[in-house]
Fold this protein.
Amino acid sequence: MSQAISNLLHLLATEPYRLLVFLVCMLAFVGLNAAYLVWVERKGAGRFQRRPGPTEVGPAGLIQPIADAAKLMSKQLIVPTGADTILFRVAPLLMMSPALMSLAVIPWGESLAARNINVGLLMIFAFGSINVMGIMLGGWSSRNKYAIISAARVVSQNVAYEIPMLLVVITMIMVTGTMNLTEIVQQQAGGFWHWNVFRVWLNPLMPVTFLIFFICMLAETNRAPFDMAEAESELVAGAYTEYAGMGFGVFFMAEYANILLGCALGTALFLGGWQSPIGVLSSVVWFLLKMYLLVFTVVWIRWTFPRTQFYGLLNLSWKILIPVSLLTLILSSAMMKLFHA
Amino acid sequence: MKNSLKEIFTGFNSLVTGMRITLGQFFKPTITVQYPHESLKMPKRFRGHIELVRDPTTGKAVCFACKLCERACPSDCITVDGAKLDGAKKKSVTEYMLDFTKCSLCGACVEACRDSAIRFSREFNLAGTKKEDYIMDLFKRLEDEAKANPMPETAQLAVPASSAPSEAPKAEAAKPASPPQTSA
């Protein structure tokens, strides 16, 4: 029996099967997370406002996401007259699929990654730019002037924040010397002071770098306080105004999938991935723990700060984040040349 | 340059302060009352619709149908009737109707009553689907109460059942949002 199981496991570890197993697991993981992060968000919002949050559907409201999904799926997918039908339907998928694909290179554990490729980081950012297209096409194809205006705002927001994000990542690539995420995590082994956030001897501005990364991640995923894309209390639903039922549901899930991806990336790049903070017992548990801590912080920020104004958002990017991230880039390259060459 | 740096640091500091405060709130207990499952105890001076007071020694109504409240009511919403029972010295109330659709809770009836035979209840679950729900038979209400609890507690005002926080949530879920009369 155990022979059969180990044979099966070996078979599943071989190339085409490994990919298939990963694909199924990732779809399940992202789906489950997207659904239950909504629950976490609502429960968190409740607790931050000293309410209990969802309590009625199932114990502690745990069946709420399933009820929400059932509601969304039972609704008709309305395509507005005059809308570009194909693009209108493809847009939510364009938003969702990059997050799913990018998760392929995230190293969950020592040997737990679907694809350990050399340009993992580059791949994530290449796919990451596609989801801007998703929102833009969603707004543009729905033939609604307000949706188009919102979509334009999203594009200018995401372009503004892509720059400091990439500058920070270039700093990281220079410091680590690789784009392979598994290798980046391996470099951070042995105690929390080896994590990239705390490696101030490489660059004294390392914690600031992490901060910039985190802020840009919030802005890229259109999370509060940068959620101008879908400012639900001011606009109807921004670029998603014309979407009904699961079309909107997929956008919603994609938001959470992107948050998950951003937090996973932050964990791998800065917080030592699967490495334990005390140097022993490193495992996937640490990765998930750190990732969900970041996710919690995202929720925490959303329910703490009011929405920024649009010019405030652009000012923050162009006047503060970009100069500071350029400074860290120059500083770390100078330090590499002087001390570590 | 110096000013903008200062702005960045003070701004960042205020963000951190804000996040500290919200995190503090996060770990404090929740304070909302989950209404259908639990409700607050009404304060002593809460003015619900009026109700008849029971004599703590006999468990019967104190009211002897003197009709002072009926006369005192500016909106004409009280109808009292009484009869002299065999062997009793005083009359006792046999009918007490309150038309709550007209009542403005002014309290003139409670003030007019010389024997403190009526008082404000603490009933607040007063949603109903028809007007007739609010023509309340207070005498019947008292009798129902007497059946459930033959002797009233002396000093304590009768608290509506749904206000008692100790009651099991399931038993209460059926109760609220219906005035006392509709269940009959």
